[in-house]
Fold this protein.
Amino acid sequence: MTTATETHQQKADLPPPAATVGIVGWLRENLFGSVPSTILTLLAAYILYLVVPPLVSWSIINATWTGADSNACKLADGARKDGACWIYIQAWIGGYMYGLYPYDLRWRIDIAAVLAVVMFAPLAIKRLPYKDLYGIAVILLYPVVAYFMFKGFIDFAPGAPGSTDHPWRVVQTDKWGGLALTLLIASVGIIASLPLGVLLALGRRSTMPIVSTFSVLFIELWRGVPLITVLFMSSVMLPLFLPEGVNFDKLLRALIGVTLFSAAYMAEVIRGGLQAIPKGQYEAAMALGLNYPRMMALIVLPQALRYVIPNIVNTFIGLFKDTTLVAIIGMFDLLGAIQLGNADPKWLGFSIEGYAFAAVLYFVFCYGMSRYSQHLERKLHTGHKKR
Amino acid sequence: MAVDVRDTARAPETPFWLDARYRAIMFQVILLVLVVGFAGYIFYNTYQNLQRRGIASGFDFLGSTAGFDIIMHLVPYAASESFGRALLVGLLNTLAVAAIGIVLATILGFVVGVARLSRNWLISRIASIYIEVIRNIPLLLQIIFWYQVLGKSTPGPRQSIDIGGLFFINNRGLYMPAPVTEPGFWLTPVAFAAGVVATIVMHRWARARQMATGQQFPVLWTALGLIFGLPILVLLVTGMPFHWDYPKLQGFNFSGGMVLIPEFISLTFALVIYTGAFIGENVRAGIMAVNHGQTEASYALGLRPGPTLRLVVIPQAMRVIIPPLTSQYLNLTKNSSLATAIGYPDLVAVFAGTVLNQTGQAVECIAITMGVYLFLSLTTSVFMNWFNRRVALKER
């Protein structure tokens, strides 16, 4: 019998179907949503099964991690073991970092690297007084410091006392190498190409016909040819362009080629920034009575350059990867040093390990920088984007 | 009488060196003089240096005997041919890698780009790992790596991997049967060309008819029939005027048939893998740029997912994809010059390498090489700009 006071009681909700929640639900949603999706999942899983286990067993499980020399990576009959031979990398890591640089002077490069960190670290501080001035000073000062750390001060005559053991003796540029050389070429290329790129970008947007024609010709010429031809040109043609007696060393020639090449790309990046600045900024500057140099230096370029910083970082990543090409013209950058190691008679037959190590190293650098540039993009692109 | 204020306000005392127009002209004249002077200085130095070193100049060397062999040539070539012929061989080798690479990289790139947007978690994850890993490793390293892997993982000629007695894989390359034409074969390419022309005409007619009457015409099947069916029919009618030349093991190597050398395979493979990753990113960006409302509107009009993708999403995505796609094609063509590192005889390896070393005429060799790349780059971008204008949004 029911009473009048009895009210309707809502029953508790039923739980959602087991197949739509939890792991099962996630799997159904993301891996087995439909028949084609299921087929693709199974196919992908099969490919992973084919690729990943052999890779793991080669690089980790069956790999040789400790040992004195290449015999540790070989079976009794002299054939090499199945796994990777990482002791080769351990033996050559110094060579990869410094190339042919004299063994007893490698500390100079270490100091240059530490100085780079110490001098550039303050720029990461958000509110540093005179940050812009400090940044310019560091960018101008550091290359000089680094140059002397790499090169040394005292040029001994061959055979003179100290010519082989003095801590500050000169090391010619053909002995520079390894990761240090890669970083050097990429940094010099990007820093030197920046002012040139700004000039070319301004020239290309100029209303003066001759200026813009020259700029367009220069930019399109360098962008239209592969870097390797530019490097060949700088190594075989540049000496012909100079008057008799004047000679550049090989590294400087390569640096000139790399700089001209990346300046053309830099110009296009900066042009993108100039175009992104609203016309109102130009007009306001002109209304204030600023002339062209002042308008550009004080109003337009600071905004445009800030806008394209992420793209400049991307250009740097591209240049960093492209520096491998100097290995073709006979310099020992990171890739050149790896090839040097692969030709070491004590370690013949382990070239795959060398290249794999180089690939990991390049990946860490480039991926790190590209994440950084994405971070910058989110941080900086607040101004002119869809307000 | 009223005085025109503007006349008096116009300051006649403005000196000419403050006049913007005059300054512009002056500046340009100075720039022109500097550039021409610099060019002249370089030209003079080069001339002096060449004279002193006794290096000949001019392009006469193109006619003299090359005297070296090239391991891959698409046109008949022997060491007794001229340097000019070697240039052609190198250029064709570059174009072969570029053309095959562009086609395969485009396919791979579209697959990867779509896969990265897939709702299937595993597929999109694999695609993004592939893109991130490949894009962040230098191409030269990848080319050398694949070349080494290919060299180490393939057996010698006598232990070749035999696929059906027709294809042989060993460390000298991939050997396969080659068709050898006989008299009367020329009709087949003619039929193929006729099929292509007829397809274009048919496509225009079918579109005009659909616009006028709304009736659709089975364009795809007719096109396939015209382009492939017609040549096959002609081939049958003329009595199969060709035979296959099979590769055979003779002594230590294969003879007969066609061979794809390992340098070609690893270079093309590395270029496709590398450029495909970049194209994948462009494709993803292009598809994401199409507003989701477009898809919904298309569904609301009753279009099924296939036609929605084909008629609504892709045409709009293409507008975003094509400009970066163009630069990827150009990059691939230019990057094929890294062939030098593994000894594939492309334009740079043959001309800026071997020919330059033999003749010593650095200026001419580098200038020709750069000129060819510049020409390729400019023609590609002109063509792609034309194509881009065709698909660009026609704003009314």
About this structure: The longest helix of chain A spans residues 351-380. Chain A touches chain B through 54 residues (CB under 8 Å).
